[in-house]
Specification:
heterodimer; A: 414 residues; alpha+beta; 2 domains; 10-stranded mixed beta sheet; two-stranded antiparallel ribbon; elongated; B: alpha/beta; 6-stranded mixed beta sheet; 8 helices; 10 strands; 37% helix
């Protein structure tokens, strides 16, 4: 290893690299391209992943939505095609039965109504909700607050509206908080205005009012339209989904194998599908990147092999002067390693530069395709180390070729 | 210094083999200035290559500095070459991208001498061949005679036991030939064994002993007037 830190070794390598400028440049480009592609592809894949993550945004990703449809199997004396509704008893039952599995549970009631403020009006969705909704999908409040437990208990006639609704219903510059809007001819006090959410938006422009108020005003008794269930940390959300459905089926006297009675949408499963796609992308990236890298390293080997041929005479002279085969081998291998190292570093620098350019041009804004495309430093190190190892291995071939030629034959070469 | 007994060497050519050296007996003592004469194909280059450990013989015995040369691997040969032998070639064989000084210093590099020291030693030898001012020139900036003097300095720099010169004047005109031969004579006068291969009569006459080779055998071996003059 001593020879690695010997300035003479490097002097020799510098000399031969400087002499073979074209070779050096071509070689460097080969490997540079490989690692450049690897860095850019990995960064792009990461950017895509970040983009997906942004779409899911502030939404609890391990959520299931459950609603009712019609039964398709007769059961316990009921005909098929029966309609039925979820109710608050279901919520209580699920809460007690899946205490540990369910993190959040939000019953929801929704309808569409004309909303009026002074002379302006619009048709919007009205949703009766519990404060827990804010935890399932974080509301970006521009001003004011979301519905709280007090509103629920006091049947408060309060509402939280979206920014777009504010723009339609209020004059520019008007303060909405504390003002009253008419929903279905009943006055509600505006207590909060929320902006557009990051990623998935469950409701669109909706006026949120307390669940209890909704129930009373729209005369829903204890019926609910649908519910959102969020699984606790580490829970298999698919399992939870089927368990919950089974419980609900028994509560509503639905055949356990009735596939149509309940509708459900498992966001967790959907996201897993996306993630699977991303994994595939990443695998492809790695595969292409590494294959290109190997091709680059082979190019180095190839070019070194050619130069070894060209340098047969020089090697012959060196050997006549007392160079041992080992010293010749060392020099050629070190040249290969040096070239791969330099090329690798340049490739990483250029790759990072491209990622930086991508980031600063298409990497920001609302609908960016690639968000914050980056590559982990450890990955770079591993790729770099692999490159150097490959460079060494590939250098062995020309190094061997250089030494199997007898010095006498090498000298005879013109 | 060099002792050769019944040396045979043949090269395979297709199915046949070409018998180049057919039993050479040669004894060269320390401090001799010997030239090997012969037309092309006489086997003189082969002899030099074997003596120079660049090639191996088939039969016979070869002692270099009293050491029997047998079953040489490349590493051992390289070390012996570096230690005992200095080469001067017809086509100079300088490394084109190294300066005169670096070329001279190269054998010392393989000897393991540090850079500062070997450049110092190399410069001394360049001075000895009268090319100190040309130390930092590349070979293509030098004339043929200058190149050969650099090559001689390179051959001498390791203080070898024997300098082997293969047609050292083959690529030079008569004036530079004389200067190169004078240099070799000076070296010999300092006690170095010099072994020259040539086909030029005038060159051979300047050495002290001429060995004539024909078809792989020695046909004559005699001392020259130059030797008798001393």
């Amino acid at each position: 290893m001593k020879f690695l830190f010997d300035s003479d070794t490097w002097q020799e390598i510098y000399g031969s690299i400087r002499k073979n400028k074209t070779r050096t440049i071509i070689t460097i480009i080969g490997v540079l391209w490989g690692i450049f592609l690897l860095v850019v592809l990995l960064g792009a894949a990461r950017g895509m992943e970040n983009g997906f993550k942004k779409v899911f945004g502030d939404f609890a990703t391990n959520s299931v939505f459950v609603w009712t449809q019609r039964t398709d199997t007769p059961f316990k004396g009921f005909q098929k095609g029966r309609r039925f509704r979820l109710n608050m008893n279901d919520i209580e039952a699920l809460k007690s039965e899946y205490k540990d599995e369910i993190k959040l549970l939000a019953p929801r009631n929704q309808t569409n109504n004309l909303i009026v403020h002074n002379f302006k009006s619009g048709d919007f969705q009205v949703s009766g909700d519990y404060p827990v909704l804010d935890q399932i999908q974080k509301k970006k409040l521009i001003s004011g607050r979301f519905i709280n437990q007090n509103d629920i208990l006091s049947y408060g006639k309060v509402t939280v509206i979206s920014e777009d609704m504010y723009k339609q219903l209020f004059d520019k510059g008007e303060v909405a908080i504390g003002q009253y809007i008419k929903i279905n001819a009943i006055n509600y006090k505006v207590i909060g205005v929320y902006g557009p959410s990051n990623g998935i938006d469950l409701d669109g422009d909706t006026a949120y009012i307390p669940f209890s108020t909704f129930r009373k005003v729209y005369n829903r008794a204890n019926k609910i339209d649908w519910m959102v269930i969020t699984g606790a940390e580490g829970i298999d959300i698919e399992q939870l989904e089927s368990d919950v459905l089974l419980t609900l089926k028994s509560l509503h006297k639905v055949h356990p194998e009735d596939e149509r009675a309940f509708g459900s949408f498992n966001l967790g499963t959907q996201i897993e599908k996306f993630m699977g796609f991303l994994k595939g992308m990443q695998f492809l990236t790695w595969f292409v990147g590494i294959a290109t890298l190997i091709a680059g390293v082979f190019a180095i080997g190839n070019i070194l092999l050619i130069t070894v041929k060209e340098r047969t005479k020089e090697i012959g002279i060196r050997r006549a002067l007392g160079a041992t085969p080992k010293s010749i081998r060392q020099q050629i291998i070190l040249e290969a390693v040096f070239l791969t190292t330099v090329a690798g570093m340049l490739g990483i620098v250029f790759g990072s530069l491209i990622l930086y350019i991508i980031d600063s041009t298409v990497g920001s804004g609302e609908d960016a395709a690639l968000v914050n495309p980056t590559v982990n430093i450890p990955i770079i190190f591993v790729a770099f180390a692999t490159l150097i190892v490959l460079g060494t291995l590939i250098g062995l071939i020309p190094a061997h070729m250089a030494t199997i030629v007898k010095p006498i034959e090498a000298l005879r070469e013109e | 210094m060099i002792e050769i007994k019944k040396l045979h060497k043949s090269y395979p050519i297709g199915k046949d083999s070409l018998h180049v050296l057919k039993g050479i007996d040669l004894h060269i003592k320390e401090g001799e200035f010997v030239s090997i004469m012969g037309s092309s194909g006489s086997g003189k280059s082969t002899l030099l290559n074997i003596v120079g450990l660049l090639d191996v013989h088939d039969e016979g015995e070869y002692y270099l500095n009293g050491q029997l040369i047998k079953d040489m691997n490349e590493k051992k040969a390289a070390i012996l070459r570096n230690k005992f032998l200095g080469f001067v070639f017809q086509s100079f064989n300088l490394i084109s991208y190294k300066t005169a000084l670096e070329n001279v210093a190269l054998p010392l590099y393989y000897k393991g001498m540090n850079r500062k020291e070997r450049l110092k030693v190399a410069l001394e030898y360049l001075e000895k061949v009268g090319l100190k001012e040309w130390a930092n020139h590349l070979p293509n900036e030098l004339s043929g005679g200058q190149k050969q003097r650099v090559a001689i300095a390179r051959a001498l720099v390791t203080k070898p036991k024997v300098v082997l010169a293969d047609e050292p004047t083959g690529a030079l005109d008569s004036t530079t030939t004389d200067s190169v031969m004078d240099l070799l004579k000076d070296i010999n006068d300092e006690g170095m064994t010099v072994f020259v291969i040539t086909h030029e009569e005038e060159v051979a006459e300047q050495t002290k002993r001429i060995v004539r080779l024909k078809d792989g055998v020695i046909i004559s071996d005699e001392y020259t007037k130059a030797a008798k003059a001393v």
